[in-house]
Design goal:
alpha/beta, Rossmann fold, SH3 type barrels, Elongation Factor Tu (Ef-tu), domain 3, 6-stranded antiparallel β-barrel, 5-stranded parallel beta sheet, 17 strands, 27% helix, globular
């Protein structure tokens, strides 16, 4: 009988999830490893070699580590669920003129649900992942996520959508460690190749890091249907033709194919008219935002009034703001202007290091 019970660990084959699994194993948990097959590159039209969490090499690396430490390992094929939900949403969001956030959707609706469903079948009380974040139970009975120790690796931003019910069964073993410390642990385990593994910042199903090529492959008629729309200035003046509104994002400066003698940026995307609006940098500056599809973490309802730090993208340092909840919409008033608010991306709210919740920018 194990010291702490049985736990299902999501293992991608990378250094973070591998060390997390070994750490829990050595703490006395009865560890079961699970690698999820979410995608195969052949379906994406990619030209590069398959790499990352869904590759055969990564699956074999996860299994090899589990065998070496004497705990079971399973592979779970969730390509159908992943494709139907995450990838379809990714395409639909670009076609709606928004910039999607697939990692949040995958965590919320696919990975956690798939892990817990399999955990139940295997009689596992808990699940664990290699995310750099912390979790604790508060006196108010709610589970709260807080930032990981390593500020450069903190992943709380992509976890805002995980429900209270799922957080109650979740552990993040790496939250109190830095990436450097985790790599050193891998070396101490005798896993030199694992310790040296690089990191991918690409979307897992866009292996060439070229979402435009992915959209064209996924929707073959798209390029022909949207090519030749108008670039316009804020006042409506037409200044050129573009290659199709889904192939541009808010804040984009390069690749416009136009010369103005000064930097110009994409400030708005109008899918109904296949129009891309351009403006100067100050036109990207906003002091207000609205956020939909809220999931609250620290509190069941946001206390009023509340000052929070709002992050509008993963690498955003965050901006002090006042937030006000109106049903399932959060109204955000920034203390100073922020640049490049992109509809479809996540806005995530913090109280100190604690995650208040988040949603999608409107």
């Amino acid at each position: 009988m194990s010291k702490h019970g049985r736990i299902l660990v999501a293992m991608s084959g990378g250094v973070d999830s591998s060390v997390a699994a070994v750490m829990l194993h050595e703490q006395g948990y009865e560890v079961i490893g699970l690698t999820m097959k979410t995608w195969d590159y052949a379906s994406s039209g990619a030209n590069s070699k398959e790499t990352g969490c869904c590759s055969l090499d990564s699956i074999n690396d996860a299994r090899s580590l589990a065998v070496g430490y004497g705990f079971p390992h399973y592979i779970l094929d969730i390509r159908n669920e992943f494709g139907d939900f995450v990838i379809d949403n990714f395409v639909d969001e670009y076609l709606a003129g928004r910039t999607p956030n697939p990692c949040v959707l995958c965590n919320t609706h696919i990975k956690w649900e798939a892990l817990l469903k399999r955990a139940d079948k295997l009689d596992c009380e808990f699940i664990a992942t290699g995310h750099y974040a912390n979790i604790r139970l508060q006196e108010n009975g709610r589970y709260v996520i807080s930032k990981g120790k390593d500020e450069n690796k903190d992943q709380s931003y992509v976890l805002w959508g995980v429900s209270q019910e799922n957080l109650a069964r979740t552990k993040f073993p790496l939250g109190s460690f830095t990436k450097a410390e985790i790599r050193q642990m891998a070396l101490d385990m005798g896993q030199e190749e694992l310790a040296k593994k690089g990191e991918s910042y690409e979307i897992c199903f866009v292996p060439d890091n070229d979402y435009r090529a992915f959209l064209k492959h996924r929707v073959p008629e798209l390029e022909q249907e949207v090519d030749g729309g108008d670039f316009v200035l804020t006042d409506g003046t037409k200044v050129g033709k573009h290659k199709g509104y889904p192939f541009y994002t808010i804040g984009q400066r390069k690749g416009l194919g136009l010369a103005f003698g000064k930097p110009m940026y994409v400030t708005q995307i109008l899918p109904e008219s296949n129009t891309v609006v351009l403006g100067e940098e100050e036109e990207l500056q906003k002091t207000e935002a609205s956020v939909r599809n809220l999931n609250l973490v620290k509190y069941a309802a946001i206390p009023e009034p509340l000052e929070a730090i709002t992050k509008i993208r993963y690498k955003d340092a965050g901006t002090f703001s006042h937030i006000h909840q109106e049903g399932n919409i959060m109204k955000v008033n920034f203390h100073h202007a922020v640049s490049g608010i992109a509809p479809g991306q996540s806005a995530v709210f913090y109280e100190g290091n604690d995650l208040l919740g988040g949603g999608f920018l409107m």
